Request: fold
Amino acid sequence: MMAYENYDALIVGARCAGAATAMLLARKGMRVLLVDRAGYGTDTVSTHALMRGAVLQLHRWGVLPHLLEAGTPPVRSTTFHYGDEKLTVAIKPANGMDALYAPRRALLDSTLVDAAWDAGVQVRHGQTLVRLSRRADGRVCGGTLLDAAGDVTHVTADLVIGADGAGSTVARLVGAETLREARHTTAVLYGYFGGREPDGYEWWYRPGVAAGAIPTNRGHHCVFVAMTPDRLHGVTSAGRAALFSKLVQEADPALAAQLAGRTPDAPLRMFGGRKGFLRQASGPGWALVGDAGYFRDPITAHGITDALRDAELLARAVVTGRPEEYATVRNELSLPLFDVTDAIAAFDWSVEEVQALHRALNQAMKREVEHLISLETTPVIEEVLL
Ligand SMILES: Cc1cc2nc3c(=O)[nH]c(=O)nc-3n(C[C@H](O)[C@H](O)[C@H](O)COP(=O)(O)OP(=O)(O)OC[C@H]3O[C@@H](n4cnc5c(N)ncnc54)[C@H](O)[C@@H]3O)c2cc1C
Reply:
């Protein structure tokens, strides 16, 4: 079967970046189609920790209450363990937020998809973008979608937004330029464990290893270890649990003692590493948002926060008809985070050096939050200009 449809915007990828962008554009009156090749409410690789900028966005968009009703525990402090030194920082109440949160992705992403639905977005899961269409002058003007039954939908749209993750098909098809590439990557092993008190975010740093315990839904902590990818070489899926235990022990013997005898609720998950990049943000008839345009190593747990930030920046730029502002602001806010993340991902630091890197990260995050707060006083023009 073949169908033809027309929208103001076609958004490819219906997770945090795509669903949030779709919701914002539809709230401004645009006709939006949001598609994803995956199913609704599915999980994806993540350790879930949201930073202040993400919680601010979820609060402003009115979607935070749903996450709280679903039992997402509040995070009221962050504890950094640098070697044997411990530093606890309370989350200061500000801008209507008094806690951070780490919702499971199936919950966060489906909550944003539901908010997009409520705003009038056409949402379709099980649809894969396979081709882009271009006008005679080269401007992107739509795409071809394919579902599992082999049915094809040709969509024309004034704007095609790639929110389709780090391996973005849209980025490849438009030939988005890579503006910056990271030098380092980490590998991550993580799992979900019950029976720990939900006592804030905790991060551990020792030379060659980092770990984290992040309180999430269902009374679980997402516990991860991060390392250089070579430490995973040759490790079979059967050997993952032993490596995980060894690295937790290296990072913090007290955490290892807490986890001793506990099995995760599902097999441990692994991220083998992927170098970060900053891609060209937009071009004629297209834009990239979330990991599709900007991916940084997960060691700083900042990808979702950046995706929600960039959804706001892109939606504002589309609505005001100033796409170049999206690229400029995204790059200005992202590059300090990108560079400090790369330095932390190198795993060549002493505990004193990683502390200094975290201070730089904190400054970059503060600038990001200040920028998002400043947007509250700069309302977008209601009229939609494409
Ligand atoms: C190990 C690990 C831990 C992490 N931990 C954290 C953390 O604690 N905190 C944090 O903020 N960030 C974390 N991140 C980063 C975070 O997961 C990403 O930044 C975030 O998922 C980006 O969201 P997105 O919506 O841009 O893309 P994605 O989540 O990658 O979603 C892209 C979607 O596009 C769909 N898609 C792809 N191609 C097509 C196509 N051709 N047609 C249709 N659909 C398509 C996919 O099915 C997918 O659903 C972590 C990442 C990793 C790897």
User: Anything to note?
Assistant: The first helix runs from residue 16 to 27. Residues 381-386 have pLDDT under 50 and may be disordered.
